[in-house]
Amino acid sequence: MPKPASSYVCQNCGAASAKWSGRCDACGAWNTIIEEASAIPVPGARGQGLPKGRKGQLVGLKGEIAPPPRLKTGMEELDRVAGGGFVQGSAALVGGDPGIGKSTLLLQALAALARKGEAAVYISGEEAIAQVQLRAERLSLTDAPVMLASLTNVADIIATLSEEPMAKVVVIDSIQTLWTPVIESAPGTVSQLRAGSEALIRLAKSKGISVLFVGHVTKEGDIAGPKVIEHLVDTVLYFEGDRGHQFRILRAVKNRFGPTDEIGVFEMSDAGLKEVNNPSRLFMGARENPTPGSAVFAGIEGTRPLLMEVQALVSPSVLGNPRRAVVGWDQNRLAMVLAVLEARGGVAIGANDVYLNVAGGLKVREPAADLAVAAALLSSMTGKMLPQEAVFFGEIALSGSIRPVSQSEARLKEAAKLGMKRAILAGNGEAPQTKALELKLLESVSDLVAYVASR
Predict the structure, then answer these.
(1) Going by C-beta distance under 8 Å and a sequence separation of 6 or more, which residues neighbour residue 450?
(2) Paired strand residues for 36
(3) What does pTM read for this prediction?
(4) DSSP secondary structure letter of residue 58
(5) Distance (Å, rounded) from C-alpha 216 to C-alpha 173?
(6) What are the tens digits of pLDDT across the range 159-213?
(7) Per the domain annotation, does 52 fall within a domain?
(8) How far apart are CA 334 and CA 321, in angstroms?
(9) I need a surface site. Which of 18, 152, 201, 449 has the fewest CB within 10 A?
């Protein structure tokens, strides 16, 4: 019998090569190439003829489409991020750091669905059934009729799920433990991940099962395995949080059935994850003792307006290369704001150590935070306190001008709801209409410098 051919596959991007090398030519990652047995030849390759196909039906773009049926867990934060609930016959991938609470969240969601009469199955490939039962007892979920199994063979999982009564929602914890004897490679490799996920997704589509995969993340924060896994599923959710904080953030980065960049906020406690219905108060903090270097930013996460506190500390540096430490924001964006303040605002800030933090463990990605960050930096440097009941939002251009941002009315409405009295925003453009807040319009960073200096 001829020896099966092998190829060398990058475990980061899935690119295949004929020989091993220390660095992948496709993605540039080091020490990620592993020898794997070659897959079954693809029809149409050399020596393989394409079978005769069947004519497909072509239709137009216009048509009456009913919304897909969804499974609502009753956990509003989770349902919002999923787009209104999990779609039947879809696949979702939930990623996050080890110990962040992925298994806890999904076990709570399964228990909520099971209590509503939905057939829910939890398949664990990493933990024994006794360990899952202990977690359920700790979370007071033992009364929920969730069925458990400890399986890693894809064929066994499909055979189990195909039996009656048919499951409606299934959690696979985790996708890295799946394996099939058809592929001659170890569990967790690219070939095993692709084969296992494709087989389970086909089952989900054909049987109308909502499958939730749990995925590990790498040290860079990406879900382990090639991006092809994220392309195969319908929804990709990231569970974020700092172990130093009890709060967790669930973020949708891909959703074929709903909006992306939506977030849900949870609080980790002894009884499991609890929903945070008003996260703006969480990210603002108590603010009982105001100090220089603190500004409130009115941001937008998905469709939800949020108020969060931006904290800055500027101190003289004794180093030849001043330090820049950032938590919760883009470090390159901070370098740009510092350069604009110095070049356009006339503020000599570059020789100082700069520390920036977004309170509550939230990661801000939108450029609308530029104005709040600049205000916090100027406040810390000058020792002037910013108004405690004021919010800041606006984008700073390299020319020094302050540009308006989208959804200003929603930001102002959220600020007024939480007792804010004034808003500092961009004056370049049409000012939003509001009577609830006093507006201060700034056109450039020079106006911001003058405003902070007058405090």
Answers:
(1) none
(2) 7
(3) 0.77
(4) P
(5) 10
(6) 999 887 789 999 999 888 888 888 877 787 888 888 899 999 999 999 999 999 9
(7) no
(8) 16
(9) 18
Q: Tokens 């390299």 correspond to what residue?
A: 398
Q: List the one residue out of 180, 171, 120, 168 whose CA is nearest residue 150.
A: 171
Residues 6+ away with beta carbon under 8 Å from 407: 300, 305
Neighbours of 356 (CB within 10 A): 25
Domain count, the chain: 3
Task: Map tokens 């592993």 to a residue.
Answer: 34
How is 67-123 classified by DSSP, letter by letter?
PPPEE--S-HHHHHHTTSSEETT-EEEEEE-TTSSHHHHHHHHHHHHHHTT--EEEE
SS3 content of the chain, % helix, strand, coil (to 5): 25, 30, 45
Residue 145 neighbours by CB under 8 Å, 6+ apart? 114, 115, 120
Enclosing domain of residue 431? 282-453
For the stretch 101-113, pLDDT in tens is 899 999 999 999 9
**Same-domain pairing of 27 and 114:** no
* 317 contacts 371 by C-beta, under 8 angstroms: no
Same domain, 293 and 271: no
Six-digit token pair at 14?
């899935």
Are 161 and 168 in contact by the 8 Å Cβ rule? The answer is no
End-to-end CA distance of the chain: 84
The closest alpha carbon to 171, from 241, 274, 269, 102, belongs to: 102
CATH number at residue 177: 3.40.50.300
Asked if 204 and 213 touch (Cβ cutoff 8 Å), the reply is no
